[in-house]
Design goal:
By secondary structure, the protein is mostly beta strands. 17% of the residues are buried.
């Protein structure tokens, strides 16, 4: 078991995946995953916090994402955190943290 840079999340897709076929026959899927946590605050009120995660899947995982997942799909993922940066069209350096998917499990039923 590799405990270094290992992430496991269960959540729902925030939008339909963006899937692209790249040069050399590679496939890339990008999508967002919402994870929610519910707790009671000091007043006893129920509070739900949602965190959004950027996910990236390659190859066969991207094929599964393209074929079966859409907005609202509930999934479990195992992956690793990857940070990168780029310069946008206005010359501003941007930073992005993504979860690179190693394994994916569809939990919820088929979404229509």
């Amino acid at each position: 078991m590799n405990l270094r840079n290992n992430v496991r999340l269960i959540g729902n897709l925030g939008q339909n995946p963006d899937v692209k076929d790249l040069n050399g026959g590679k496939k890339l899927a990008k999508f967002s995953l919402a994870t929610s946590e519910t707790y009671k605050n000091e007043k006893g009120e129920k509070v739900t916090e949602t965190q959004w995660h950027n996910l990236v899947a390659w190859g066969k995982q991207a094929d599964v994402v393209a074929k079966y997942l859409k907005k609202g799909s509930e999934i479990a993922v195992d992956g690793k955190i990857h940070s990168r940066n780029y310069t946008d069209k206005d010359g501003v350096k941007r930073y992005l943290t993504e979860i690179v998917v190693n394994e994916l499990l569809m939990i919820g039923g088929k979404k229509e």
